[in-house]
């Protein structure tokens, strides 16, 4: 038999990574397969997608940071005196932002509790399907709606901080530094609002008694997204407060 | 040793996920769910493709108007009447923007990538089908918003596809800089959102949905190219999105991110302290990777085709993979070479210059490997191969002027001339479009189940190949003679007037070349209905899309999941009964 030399080395195909090319069952489409390879596959895929998505979001804020640093150092010409001046004056940030930060950090904790709670519920739902097994998810606190409320409170707090800034004479176009305060808080708020919508969607899915495993995955990725948003907010606050 | 299989046969392992597959992929029944708001990556791929097809004809029509105006500046044009300089700038802006975003970025990645990436890695669909649908429709809305700029008061913007402030940031800077420019920025921002969602899907799909046996180093080079392109898009489009948001605020809210103290129409504008260079840095941090976003898929496809049609394994598979990775990485380090004119420090310019010329190394590796694959091959000159060879030719011709422009001392006199226009049209524009044509001729049988007319395709190739060289090579000479780009007419300056005969030649070549594209258009639609029926593997290729039915079923592999045993370029294998071994052929493992 003539020899066969592959151009790419052949390993045992069973050792390859990859998700088998399978698209798992659609979310909300039925099928309690928590604990099955499909659940793990879906969870892994959702988390991977989240990491990739967060990279894209991070690039947006990295760009803003770059613009923030560059814009600080730019001089401008005073047309009356024909002298170059620096027009960057730090904006005194409202103390309310510290309270908002506390609310968001607490919401990150409740989100983590909600994420773990959703995982437990999904596991118990699987057990309850076994004849003769009594599995009761007796959870005293429902962390998911609490997190959504805290998230909305944070957004309302940010709005109140904007109003306070306006009352003190700092508007979007008042100075480059106040432009960045509105820009960064606004963009963060938009992204966090997306997280709130995801939480509300998961809550509605729960009320409609969608499969627990699908909810668990949705809450899991929203949870990691939420933690990222909390971290991002702390980063933005430090940038605005300390980088001058 | 059992033979490799091809044609209509399917050699797949029997690991069945059929029940789950059927559940996940119940084929939609109604027209709306099947063809409009479809979740099927193949339909979405076709939607992207036809969006790009309409866009390319719009963009081409705009370029035709520009070329006619350049040589007959006083002649009224259809729909537009007499062309003012600002109208010319609007045509230029919309031509560049539509071509770069809605053609060169959309067709190779959104179109063919969507259709064939999942099939080539053995997947049933993209990782997130709903997100995939959303990314197309956001892109589509972006396209409509872009076109609507023609129809608002003041018309389309004037600031070129690069959108440099302060021109782009001031509503009073020109007739198209009002609502038209706002729509332009909004359209670009929407495009970025669509592209980011798409990149997320491509990356997750490639990493997580490869079939058993499809290790990364067994992926076809097309998949590598789509994967790296998606990573570039993920890192680049977020930056452009941010810049677009800042520009919108400057234009409409009165901020001063990009606008310095500036006098417009004799009035001091209400901005101060911003920097147009900040926009340039952000824009070109996106803009240079965008060049590779446009051309990497064509490189991957070219690698595929020279192997298939030379009946030889690709020369240096791993080198090709590492070259794609290097080009992607270096592409993020060279944006400053677009800004040598901005007065940057010579030390910074030197660094950007060296990094830019370093990209020549992986580019040369790729070219060498394409030639190495062709060398000694039993070449089949079918139309996909003609366009692949045409791509190599254009890539070399357009690329060779890159090292010229990478040197600040040469770039400064050449930068605002037709030399640059010729350079980037050859390497980014036409080379990528040759990739799109090659992909169309190659995958048409799989997509539509029929063959395109080969004789019409050859006519199309020669019209386009000779035509594009006739258009863009003389532009290099125009540039060296000092012909400035973006000027709407050359009749008022003596030294430019002397170059008008060459400008006329270019316009005639453009008219003939554009006429040649209707051969393609006719062939495309005629063949869908009347083309010869295609077999499942008409090119005798080895990758997974040729193991499934033509056109592929809704879940791509008819409820079964393939297993991969071989690399993607097993041609002329000693001892094999045929000159190709399918990726799914298990018998070769035994032979090994």
Low-confidence stretches of chain B: 1-23
Number of structurally distinct domains of chain A:
1
Radius of gyration of chain B using CA atoms only? 24 Å
Which structural class fits the helix and strand makeup of chain A? mainly alpha
User: Regions of chain A with pLDDT < 50 over 5+ consecutive residues?
Assistant: 1-19, 24-35
CATH architecture of chain B: Up-down Bundle
CATH overall fold name of chain B: Cytochrome C Oxidase, Chain A
The main sheet of chain B comes to:
2 strands, antiparallel
The CATH topology annotation of chain A reads as Four Helix Bundle (Hemerythrin (Met), subunit A)
Largest β sheet strand count, sense and barrel closure of chain A? 2 strands, antiparallel
The level 1 CATH classification of chain A is: Mainly Alpha
Superfamily at the CATH H level of chain B?
Cytochrome c oxidase-like, subunit I domain
Q: Quaternary status of these chains? A: heterodimer
Shape of chain A: elongated
Relative helix content of chain B = 55-70%
């Amino acid at each position: 038999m003539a020899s066969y030399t592959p151009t790419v080395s052949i390993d045992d195909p069973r050792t390859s990574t990859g998700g088998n090319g399978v698209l798992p069952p659609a979310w909300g489409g039925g099928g309690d397969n928590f604990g099955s390879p499909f659940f793990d596959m879906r969870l892994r895929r959702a988390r991977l997608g989240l990491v990739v998505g967060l990279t894209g979001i991070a690039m947006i804020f990295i760009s803003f940071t770059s613009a923030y640093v560059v814009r600080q150092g730019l001089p401008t010409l005073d047309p009356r005196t024909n002298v170059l001046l620096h027009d960057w004056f730090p904006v005194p940030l409202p103390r309310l932002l510290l309270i908002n930060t506390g609310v968001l950090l607490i919401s990150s904790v409740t989100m983590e509790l909600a994420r773990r709670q959703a995982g437990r519920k999904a596991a118990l739902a699987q057990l309850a399907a076994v004849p003769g097994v009594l599995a009761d998810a007796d959870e005293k606190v429902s962390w998911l709606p609490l997190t959504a409320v805290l998230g909305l409170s944070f957004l309302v707090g940010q709005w109140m901080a904007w109003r306070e800034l306006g009352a003190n004479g700092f508007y979007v176009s008042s100075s480059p530094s106040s432009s960045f305060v509105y820009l960064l808080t606004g963009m963060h708020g938009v992204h966090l609002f997306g997280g709130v919508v995801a939480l509300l969607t998961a809550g509605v899915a729960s009320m409609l008694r969608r499969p627990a495993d699908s909810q668990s995955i949705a809450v899991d990725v929203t949870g990691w997204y939420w933690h990222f948003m909390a971290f991002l907010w702390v980063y933005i606050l430090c940038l605005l407060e300390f980088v001058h | 040793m059992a033979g490799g299989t091809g044609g209509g046969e399917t050699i797949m392992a029997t690991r069945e996920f059929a029940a789950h597959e059927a559940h996940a992929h119940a084929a939609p029944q109604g027209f709306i769910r099947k063809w409009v708001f479809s979740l099927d990556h193949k339909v979405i791929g076709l939607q992207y493709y036809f969006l790009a097809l309409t866009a390319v004809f719009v963009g081409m029509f705009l370029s035709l108007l520009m070329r006619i105006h350049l040589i007959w500046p006083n002649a009224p044009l259809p729909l537009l009447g007499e062309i003012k300089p600002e109208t010319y700038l609007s045509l230029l802006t919309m031509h560049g923007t539509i071509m770069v975003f809605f053609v060169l970025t959309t067709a190779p990645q959104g179109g063919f990538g969507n259709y064939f990436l999942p099939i080539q890695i053995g997947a049933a669909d993209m990782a997130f089908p709903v997100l995939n649908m959303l990314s197309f429709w956001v892109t589509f809305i972006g396209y409509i918003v872009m076109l609507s700029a023609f129809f608002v008061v003041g018309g389309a913007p004037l600031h070129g596809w690069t959108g440099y402030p302060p021109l782009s940031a001031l509503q009073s800077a020109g007739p198209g800089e009002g609502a038209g420019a706002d729509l332009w920025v909004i359209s670009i921002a929407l495009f970025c959102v669509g592209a980011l969602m798409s990149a997320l899907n491509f990356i997750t799909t490639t990493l997580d949905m490869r079939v058993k046996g499809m290790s990364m180093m067994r992926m076809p080079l097309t998949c590598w190219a789509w994967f790296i392109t998606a990573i570039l898009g993920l890192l680049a489009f977020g930056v452009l999105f941010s810049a677009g948001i800042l520009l919108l605020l400057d234009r409409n809210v009165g901020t001063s991110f990009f606008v310095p103290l500036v006098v417009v129409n004799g009035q001091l504008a209400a901005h101060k302290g911003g920097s147009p260079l900040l926009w340039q840095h952000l824009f070109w941090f996106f803009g240079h990777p965008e060049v590779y976003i446009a051309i990497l898929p064509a490189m991957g496809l070219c690698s595929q085709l020279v192997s298939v049609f030379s009946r030889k394994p690709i020369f240096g598979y791993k080198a090709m993979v590492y070259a794609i990775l290097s080009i992607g990485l270096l592409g993020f380090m060279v944006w400053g070479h677009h800004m040598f004119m901005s007065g940057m420090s010579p030390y910074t310019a030197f660094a950007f210059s060296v990094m830019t010329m370093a990209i020549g190394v992986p580019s040369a590796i790729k070219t060498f490997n394409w030639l190495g694959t062709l060398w000694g091959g039993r070449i089949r000159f079918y139309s996909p191969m003609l366009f692949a060879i045409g791509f190599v030719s254009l890539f070399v011709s357009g690329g060779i002027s890159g090292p010229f422009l990478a040197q600040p001392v040469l770039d400064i006199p050449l930068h605002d001339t037709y030399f640059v226009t010729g350079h980037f049209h050859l390497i980014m524009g036409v080379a990528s479009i040759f990739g799109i044509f090659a992909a169309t001729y190659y995958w048409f049988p799989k997509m539509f189940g029929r063959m395109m007319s080969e004789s019409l395709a050859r006519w199309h190739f020669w019209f386009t190949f000779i035509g594009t060289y006739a258009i863009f090579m003389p532009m290099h000479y125009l540039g060296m003679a000092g012909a400035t780009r973006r000027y709407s007419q050359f009749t008022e300056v003596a030294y430019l007037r002397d170059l008008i005969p060459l400008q006329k030649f270019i316009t005639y070549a453009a008219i003939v070349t554009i006429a040649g594209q209707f051969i393609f258009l006719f062939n495309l639609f005629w063949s869908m209905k009347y083309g010869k029926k295609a077999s499942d593997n008409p090119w005798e290729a080895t990758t997974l899309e040729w193991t499934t039915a033509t056109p592929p079923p809704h879940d791509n592999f008819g409820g079964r999941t393939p297993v991969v045993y071989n690399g993607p370029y097993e041609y002329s294998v000693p001892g094999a009964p045929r000159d190709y071994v399918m990726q799914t052929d298990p018998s070769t493992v035994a032979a090994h």
